[in-house]
Amino acid sequence: MITINTNKLEYKLIAVPNNETNINILDKPSCVTFISESKTFYLVIKKDSMSYLRQLKLGLASFIQMCKGDTNIDFNSFVKVIPNVNKEIIFNVICDVILFETHKFITYKKDVKTNDYLFNIDQSEDFSDLLDENILKNKYVNYARDLQDFPPNIGTSDFYGEKLLKDSSKIEGLKVSVLKNKELKELDMNLVLAVNQGSNHDANVVVMEFNNNPGGKKIALVGKGICFDTGGYDLKPSAFIEGMKFDMTGAAIVMSIAMALAEAKAKINLVAVGLFTDNKIGQKAVLPESIIKSKNGLTVEISNTDAEGRLVLADGITYAIREKNADVIYDIATLTGATAMALGESASGVFTEFDEMWKKLNEASNYTTERFWRLPIFAEHKEQVKNDSVLADLTNSCKKGPGGSTAAAFLTFFAEDKEFLHIDCSRVVRVGLKGQGYIVKTMFELLKK
Fold first, then answer.
1. Can you tell me the distance from the alpha carbon of 307 to that of 336, in angstroms, rounded to the nearest whole number?
2. 245, 310, 382, 441: which one is catalytic?
């Protein structure tokens, strides 16, 4: 729990630039030292090749692990040692780390210790509204993390459909529906159904709507929700199948963003489409070289069954445009290994032909300290998607070229000239086998206004 200026607690946390205060302080960037005599934790933040904010994040995470009881945080000491950074951003990071590290995460272990300490931020300005917003944002960061962390034998498409319907019904003004195979067939969402063919569960397309901006544009968030991705008949090797329960992260993120914005009563007209299904091998699983007609009428040759994410997204984008009258589309997906190789765990890849969309996202990310990097969609990428199939309008996997860019290029054929931005969050959304709820804060910041 976090408070502001309300308590004088047993322990203190102070940021210092060196060990001048006490020679026993470990004088290394981001290191935390506890001095028992004064019941004080000292976090060293100093000029170094590691950025000030990274030192702050790593140091606070270490402090939470070491914490011994209710603690006062000397906010002004952090402002003093972190130059040229907005006070609000420093405050946000402190809240982010505390709320992230103290979250009671999904676990199936018998004995797990939880941190229920109180953290009081002593500071001179009135950040009470900012604290409330941080608590709300991080509530849904942690909600997304929980959705990510369910094991695949529990976290099926049916499970997510039922859970999201139940949880979101508690939020005033948020309308929720779940489309299963019967409804998807009526809607001609054949690409989703093709990916779902090998599964023993129906696809569950969760649709959340929140309208609170009369006359304003309709914003769509579309998320890839592959609950487990074997690769289908283009089976993944064992080295690449670990962590494939996280292939539903895009849908977890867009659902969480929608719930956060609705609870915040943001001035926005929003539809969020979470496309939950599996990509499995089975008697009825779709075969490589199959040709499927998409919801928007274009035929697609499935030249690689492991390029399934762009298939469900394509139908989801068309659904948002044609059924929900979306004017602006953002899609979020753990889509390609190519983007993961390019950016690793450092940033999400962003693909868009709309400069203003990138500019606004980048500004929001500078405030939240989540990182994004813009990558290209060139004309030749679109040509490859169109020309690599002899029999169909498009192919879902090109024979050569940069995989991240051709995947994004494929999606542009379904955006119907609407403002469109694709986020490929391949590796930043998890650390090892723990979800991170990444992107929720940035999209909340971008869309709340």
1. 8
2. 310
In the set 54, 87, 236, 324, the catalytic residue is 236
User: Do the Cβ atoms of 308 and 226 come closer than 8 Å?
Assistant: yes
Give the span between the Cα atoms of 196 and 350, in whole angstroms: 27
Helix axes 249-263, 157-168, angle to 10 degrees: 10
| CATH number (domain holding residue 279) | 3.40.630.10
Q: Is the separation of the CB atoms in 253 and 144 below 8 Å?
A: yes
Q: Which domain holds residue 243?
A: 150-447
Please indicate whether residue 310 is annotated as part of the active site: yes
- Given 64, 92, 126, which residue is the final one in a domain? 126
pLDDT tens readout for residues 341-399: 999 889 999 999 999 999 999 999 999 999 999 999 999 999 999 999 999 999 999 98
pTM confidence score: 0.96
Same domain, 17 and 163: no
Under 8 Å between Cβ of 2 and 95: yes
Do 169 and 69 lie in one domain? The reply is: no
Residue 430 known to be catalytic: no
Question: Tens of pLDDT along 78-127?
Answer: 999 999 999 999 999 999 999 999 999 889 988 777 778 999 999 878 89
Rounded to the nearest 10 degrees, how much is the dihedral formed by the CA atoms of 209, 213, 215, 221? -40
Answer whether 262's CB lies under 8 Å from 333's CB. Answer: no
Tokens of 135: 């608590």
Domains: count for the chain? 2
**Do residues 260 and 440 touch, judged by C-beta distance below 8 A?**
yes
Does residue 137 sit within a domain? no
